[in-house]
Amino acid sequence: MSTPEAFSARSWLFAPGDSARKMAKAAAGPADVVLLDLEDAVAEDAKPAARAAVAAFLAARPEPERHRLWVRINPLDGPHALADLAAVLPARPGGIMLPKARGGDDARTLDHYLSALETAAGTAPGTTRVIVLVTETAEAMFSTGTYRGVPRVVALSWGAEDLADAVGASGNRAPDGGYGFTYELARSLCLLGAASAGVQPVETIQGDFRDLAGLRERAARVRRDGYRGMLAIHPDQVDVINTAFAPTENEITEAREIVEAFAAHPGAGVVAHKGAMLDRPHLARAQAVLAAGERR
Predict the structure, then answer these.
(1) Cα 118 to chain center, whole Å?
(2) Which residue among 7, 38, 88, 96 is least enclosed by CB atoms within 10 Å?
């Protein structure tokens, strides 16, 4: 089974599962992960046809390419999730996005479903990875720390639109245009939950896909906070996200110097570097930068 530490992706691009054209365009682009959407992007009466279309799209792609083609299914507590999984698992998507999760138990239930369907399809158990949307319901806000050790989960992300609906809010933005307190709290809880679970935190979408300058600023800000990737709703957003979440040459150089400083003093808990005293957390962050640089 793949471990959370082995996985990283900067850009996660949604493509509606009822549009073969948009799925093909997304798959042909530079997104690290393409999320073929069976949930919000598909109307209720169109879900059976979209389910079949996504399965056919996956089956038609070369198998090595499918590792980056994931599927957002419908919520586990609704009528569509099992049908979604039964349709797409034989085509071996790279992963599943679980929306409106209520906590780690939902992700564990999904693991059981996936194991059974992988076995039926002749796929090695544990192959299919999972990203969980962890703040889309009010209940879920209290359980973002329950994903530690849950099989298959490699990333957590959050959502502001469904959360606003769940709490009966008329909007999720403050007067200055930023998210209101509840939604900034959701962002923080997702980040902390991912850190606790040892998986990748992924920032939610930016709805205004034309504002690439704003996207660039926001991506840089959340990366400083600890996020390592971001959801996208339009292909034009992908290059901005990929660049924002890749370390710069200066960052790579600085990280390499920090790693070398610790290597020169084996066993040391603190080393001097450019007039500052650095401890083990600095080493861990430097190692993470170098690992990200290798994946660019």
Answers:
(1) 22
(2) 7
